[in-house]
Amino acid sequence: MEENDQGAQRPDFIPEVGEEAVDAAPCSPCTVLTEQEQAELHSELQKVEDEIQTLSQVLAAKEKQVAEIKRKLGITPLNELKQNLSKGWHDVTTSTAYKKTSETLSQVGQKATTAFSSVGTAITRKLEDVRNTPSFKSFEEKVETLKTKMSPKPSTSDIEEVSDSTPDGEPMIKQPDDTFSPDQQPH
Predict the structure, then answer these.
(1) First-last CA distance in the chain
(2) Does the pTM of the predicted model rise above 0.90?
(3) Which residues, other chains included, contact 26 with Cβ-Cβ below 8 Å and sequence gap of 6+?
(4) Contact, 179 vs 173, CB < 8 A?
(5) DSSP conformation letters of 77-134
(6) Cβ neighbourhood burial of 70 (10 Å; 0-12, 13-18, 19+)
(7) What is the pLDDT of residues 123-178, one digit of tens each?
(8) Which residues contact 160 (CB under 8 A, 6 or more apart)?
């Protein structure tokens, strides 16, 4: 006999509950019910089914009552969802696993910050060392000299020439030959 086969060990054992249990329960041909026993069982069955129906109606009425109370309190399905998410997030953030993970990530972040700071300091020092070398100073001086030579230097004579004449030296404004100067009036 198998250890898992409890039905074979106990013929009255019913592993499931609900309507499916009736279908799953083995019908024992050895058990013969009298008419009186069958009548009692039918009566009990009817009572249980009536109780189930009553409980279903009570449950529906209670659900309706809950919905009405929530409506009066202004609790909407969206508010409930927000509350559930908030409670869920609170439960997550207060869990030991979250706290340990958060602590570890914080330590890693601090170590990374320290490492980046050290690297930045080392690079800064190296750049300062390079800038203080004679070859870099020489290069810097050459760039400055080149910049000075390339920069235009405006002079006042250049500005006057540009404003009074065209590129070929002709005056920009010509007086017509048949006009008179202001002190000469035609007679």
Answers:
(1) 150
(2) no
(3) 7, 11
(4) no
(5) HHHHHHHHHHHHHHHHHTSHHHHHHHHHHHHHHHHHHHHHHHHHHHHHHHHHHHHTSH
(6) middle
(7) 988 888 887 888 878 888 888 888 888 887 766 555 555 555 555 656 555 555 55
(8) none
Q: Which residue has the tokens 């039918």?
A: 42
Are the CB atoms for 24 and 14 separated by under 8 Å? yes
Residue 98 structure tokens: 């979250």
The length of the chain, given as a count of residues? 187
At residue 149, what is the residue type?
Answer: K
Q: Is 171 helix (H, G, I), strand (E, B) or coil?
A: strand
Residue 2's Cβ-side half-sphere holds a number of Cα atoms within 13 Å equal to 5
